[in-house]
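Give me the fold.
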Amino acid sequence: MKKAFILAVMLGAFSASEAKEYLSVEQAQQLMVSGHSMTRAPVNLSAEQQSKMTDASSVKFPFDGKNVWKVADGGWFVVDQVVGKHEFITYAVGINADGTVKQVDVLEYNESYGYEVKERSWMNQFIGKTAAMPIKLNQDIKNISGATLSCKHLSDGVKRVMVMYELALKGQK
């Protein structure tokens, strides 16, 4: 029994199955919104809009528009998910009133490695980006060795959110 337990620990059998929540949605909202009020503003996207988002970002599964909030200062707060290597990464994007990325935060990371993508130094690369910019790994977003798939998929996810902003949110009062 003791040998089996030690072997399981050595093989990492227990670490890969635990999800790590770094921020709740409410905590991320407090960090990004800076005291402004927010109103939930679900978005229903057409098949054509979903297709344009997929083409721009290469994220294949549909965007779930229920996690969108309108910020009183004219900005937006969006929660989305992408697959890292095998598991979902939940992240939030704050969008300024001018359509630029205000901030990106990883809320929950389920992979056993590659968690460095949650570090502020890497996330800050997205600040100021717009849908018109590449937001593409190894173009305007730097990679983290050992976290390549998480970096790529998070970059694609931020691109997807920014394209969604252009298609569905821009100009809404």
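The longest strand covers residues 101-109.
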